[in-house]
Each structure stands twice: as C-alpha cells, then as structure tokens.
Amino acid sequence: MVHALIFDSGVGGLSVSAEIRKVSPGIQQSYVADDMFRPYGEKTDQQLRERLPGLLWTLCETLKPDLVVMACNTASTSALSEIRAELDIPVIGVVPAIKPAAALSRTRSFAVLGTPGTVRRQYVDQLIKDFAPDHSVILQGSTRLVALAEDKLAGRPVHMGALSEEIAPIFKDPDVDCVVLACTHFPLLIEELAAAAPPGINWVDSGEAIARRVQSVAREISVFRPRRTGPDLALLVGQNNDPVRARAFKDYGFERVVGLLDSSKTAINA
Length: 270
Prior knowledge:
Helix content: 40-55%
Largest sheet: 6 strands, parallel
CATH topology of the largest domain: Rossmann fold
Shape: globular
Order of helices and strands: EHEHEHEHEHHEHHEHEHEHE
Number of strands: 10
Distance between the termini: 29 Å
CATH architecture of the largest domain: 3-Layer(aba) Sandwich
Strand order of the largest sheet: 4-3-1-2-9-10
Radius of gyration: 18 Å
C-alpha cells in the first residue's frame, strides 16, 4: 500500500485529500497542517524556501511516506523545486487550473482567485502566457478567504459579508464566467462562494487532476505492502487544540489528530 503525505499551511489540503480518497481509496494518507506559519500567502518566496525544504525533509524522515503532495498553491509556486531537491521521493505540486479554465470559458474572460502570494508570482503569469494569451484574466488575491475557510472547518459561521467583499472585484467585469480557485482552502467554501457570486459561474480547481496524478505516481512506484502501516494521521504544527477543528479532520478520514509544538529548538524545524 502506498503512503502519501499531504502538506498544506492549514485545512486547505483537505479538499485535495478528499479527491485522492475518491480516486484511490486504498492509499494511506498522513496530513500535515503548518498552522504555526500560516498564512503562506503573506510570506515571501525567501521565507518559504528557507522553511519548507527542511521541514518536509524532517517530516519525511519521521513519517516515511512514499510520495508527497504539496497541497498548497503558494508553496508549490514558490518552493517546489527546492523541496524536490531535498527529498528522494516523488513530490507532486498543485498549480492554478488556468489551462482548463481557458478551455472552459465561453467569454474568454476568467479570474484567478488565490492568495496574494500566489497571484503575484511569475509562475502564474507564465501559465497565463502559455495557456490563456488571448483571454482577459483578472488576478484577485485574498488571505481573508483562507481565514474564512479555517473558520468553517472549526465550526464557526462564515461571514458572508466579508466573503462577498473579497470576491466583488472579480465581477466588476460582467464577462467573467469562470473562476480558478488557486488556493486549496477555497473549494471548502464552494457553497458560500457560489451563493455570493452571480449565477452561472464555473468554479475550477486542481483537486481532481492532482488526485489522478497521485494515482498515476502510486502505480509507477509500485510499493507493495500487505497492509497500511498505521491509521491515517493528521499532524497540526502549532498550538491548535480546537476540538471542533480536530473533529473536521476526522470527518475527512484522519483517525488520529495530533498537535505538534513548533519552535527553533524542536526536531520539526531541524
């Protein structure tokens, strides 16, 4: 049985985890939420490159996964090559679904909704040049939506007024008919986003494509074990003891949820 490590800054990777379970229910999953360093969208490339390769190396040495899914657009667009250089197992990144959105848009006008750290990166500009050069593309960054998704998974009500304010600039262009959810937190808010947006908007994310890629890589590495090595485990890096949030991880299939204290003196930062 293949063991996959799902990594994100918080709960957003659960949207990817759920898609992986649909496509490959037999894959064992460990999940790490880097709560201590969230939100990634407010961090610089240098900060993420300094933190993530070492953190992922430590996690992989501890958990012994067969592959890693970087279920975070910001981390993937800023530090994926450095993380891959540090590890000796496959690392699958998540990038904004600009190519499928360009194909889906009938008006040739769509938006990319991500964290500020994602939408301002050159990587996204290149995706637009490669796959949507003749489209009108609006880039909208928000860390507030990340917080709202975290609130939802912690059992707190989603502030619809705040959510509406965050996406309102997108729809100043009445031709926008697709929105790329370029942060894995945002599919967790899909019902709220749809309720706050004009009717008929197509919401596009990378979860299903990533799940198919995980399935393909799992077949390639051909790990044969008679059974899983333990329960699906979620590790929350930081002092987050919210029982409702822990329950949400269990609802997504993680039988054990453990908090880890992160500091420069602990092994997690080694």
